[in-house]
Amino acid sequence: MTAAPTPATLDQDAAAFLTQFHAERRRPGLDARLEAVRAQGFTPTAEELAFAARVAWRNSTRCVGRLPWAALDVHDLRGVTDPAEVAAHLIEHLHGAFAGGAIRPRISVFAPGVRVLNPQLIRYAAYPNADGTVTGDPVNLRLTAFLRSLGWAGGAGTPFDVLPIAIQSGRRTELFELPADAVHEVPITHPDYPGIGALGVKWHALPVISDMDLNVGGVRLACAFNGWYVQTEIAARNLADADRYDLLPRVAAALGLDTRRERTLWRDRALVELNVAVLESFAAAGVKVVDHHTVTRQFTRFEAREARAGRGVRGRWSWLIPPVSPATTPVWHRAYDDREDTPNFERVPAPWDAPVRVGCPFH
Ligand code: ARG
Q1: Binding of heme: at which residues (predicted)?
Q2: Do 188 and 309 share a domain, yes or no?
Q3: Is residue 154 in some structural domain?
Q4: Per-residue model confidence (pLDDT) at position 8
């Protein structure tokens, strides 16, 4: 006598996702699809994956730039597992997303087991100096040390050395240098203050997040995705934060401001001119960027559109408001429900973010 086959259980996350996909896309065949998933398990189809990636962006509570979510260009790389081939596809991602400066939001989705270990495809190295200062972007100290432990010899030693990317596939991890023509950068100058240009600062055109998984109905896939920058991300945080490039004192000096007394508001004046410099420099270079007034207004249009579609918008207010003049933007005056919806992107801890152990060289 043979035992009756146990009926496979239907994964509830997969079922909820498929129900949403078929309802929102008005697709027939939900019952047959659920039956197939019950029998064989859930592997998203290319169409389900594309829908999930776009809705994950729509659901990203920290993102103020969600208005164009439906135009996300989805590249299904689940057939690619060789690290060198993954690297080649990511370099193509950089070229295609840059689009001569027009910047197109794009996502590359990897097979299970494939992952980029860098938090973004383009990151600047951090070199600790003997006097305790850091050359480069201090936020990448541990990333740089990690890449060195994988065999990276180090770069030229400038404050803007682009790091190689570490690609993991199964048990292999390999390093790849990004070709210079894949990394477009904008030199930062100011139309009225040549002293700001004399600082020799630049930033890369594309933010490509690579440390978040796309959660599709409980299936978590590593991915890399980009939009375009809001200038505040560069000018009010990356270049200005005291634990990043810390440029406000040098910008204030370039503007001839009195930095001995806080009440001159030299920090604020330097900050505003640095924001102007980034916006004008990107415009002069023909690279798409958005200012915080425009993007927050676009966000209110996104909210209105979502309401018309019968959906709510969730958000994390502290991330949606810009770090410069927040109360001049419409988002300041609104309140948001910060609960997370699926599909969504979920941050994956970095290998060097392991729990703190006494004697760990990275802590
Ligand atoms: N804030 C991050 C950075 O400065 C980028 C985050 C994503 N930003 C975006 N505009 N898509 O690099």
Answers
A1: 63
A2: yes
A3: yes
A4: 79
Q: What is the pLDDT of residue 353?
A: 84
Return the best residue to mutate from 122, 137, 229 for the ligand 1 pocket (most ligand atoms within 8 A of CB): 229
Whose C-alpha lies nearest to ligand 1, atom 5? Answer: 207
Q: Are 76 and 37 members of one domain?
A: no
- Ligand 1 site, residue 238, Cβ cutoff 6 A: yes
Q: Could you give phi then psi for residue 326, rounded to 5 degrees?
A: -60, -35
36 and 48: one domain? no
Q: What is the pLDDT, as a whole number, of residue 110?
A: 98
Q: Residue holding tokens 């794009």?
A: 106
What's the pLDDT at 310? 98
Domain assignment present for residue 193? The answer is yes
Residue 349 lies in a domain: no
Q: Which atom of ligand 1 is nearest to the CA of 226?
A: 11
> What pLDDT does residue 4 have?
56
For residue 237, the ligand 1 atom closest to its alpha carbon is 4
User: What is the residue range of 273's domain?
Assistant: 43-313
pLDDT at 6: 62
The residue contributing the CA closest to ligand 1 atom 1 is: 233
Tell which residue, 334, 232, 235, 332, has the closest CA to residue 292: 232
Same domain membership, residue 242 and residue 169: yes
pLDDT of residue 197: 98
Is the same domain home to 36 and 54?
no
Check if the beta carbon of residue 224 is closer than 8 Å to that of residue 210.
yes
Residue with tokens 């570490």: 166
Distance CA 170, CA 1 (A): 41
220 C-alpha to center of ligand 1: Å? Answer: 22
- Cβ 230 under 6 angstroms from ligand 1: yes
Task: Say if 352 falls within a structural domain.
Answer: no
Q: State whether 163 and 17 are in the same domain.
A: no
Q: Of how many residues is the chain composed? A: 363
Domain count, the chain: 2
Residue ending a domain, choose from 313, 328, 351 = 313
In whole angstroms, give the CA distance from residue 24 to residue 215: 18
Q: Is the CB of 205 under 6 A from ligand 1?
A: no
Give residue 3's pLDDT: 58
C-alpha–C-alpha distance, residues 49 and 79, integer Å: 13
| Same domain? 76 vs 115 | yes
User: Which portions of the chain are predicted below pLDDT 70?
Assistant: 1-7, 355-363
